């Protein structure tokens, strides 16, 4: 990265793919959101991942943010 030998596009490609296509929430993410749901709802992006009326992010739910892909 800093040496210029690896193009920046190659370095950021995995992050862009995760933002665009998303990834399934793990059991850990699902379990931890139960205790953090009020904090998550205070953030616009994170709140968008919690379905209305739900108290957590469901295990396997696809988490994505295509708006952040450059």
Largest sheet: 2 strands, antiparallel
User: Using DSSP, what is the number of strands?
Assistant: 2
Give the strand content. Answer: 5-15%
Instruction: List low-confidence stretches.
Output: none
Round the Cα radius of gyration to an integer and report it: 15 Å
Mass-distribution shape: elongated
The helix content is 40-55%
Strand order in the largest sheet: 1-2
N to C succession of SSEs:
HEHHE
Structural class: mainly alpha
Q: Average pLDDT, to the nearest integer?
A: 88
What's the total helix number? 3
> Ends: how far apart?
18 Å
Describe this structure in words.
The structure is a single chain. With 70 residues, this protein is mainly alpha-helical. Helices cover 49% and strands 6% of the residues. It contains 3 helices and 2 strands; from the N terminus they run H-E-H-H-E. Strands 1-2 form a two-stranded antiparallel sheet. It starts with 7 loop residues before the first helix and ends in a 7-residue tail after the last strand.
Care to give the gist of this entry?
49% of the residues lie in helices and 6% in strands. It is mainly alpha-helical. The protein is elongated, with a radius of gyration of 15 Å.
């Amino acid at each position: 990265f800093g040496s210029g030998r690896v193009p920046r596009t190659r370095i950021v490609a995995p992050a862009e793919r995760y933002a665009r296509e998303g990834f399934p929430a793990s059991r850990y993410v699902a379990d931890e959101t139960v205790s953090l749901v009020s904090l998550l709802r205070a953030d616009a992006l994170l709140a968008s991942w919690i379905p209305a009326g739900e108290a957590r992010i469901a295990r396997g739910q696809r988490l994505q943010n295509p708006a952040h892909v450059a």
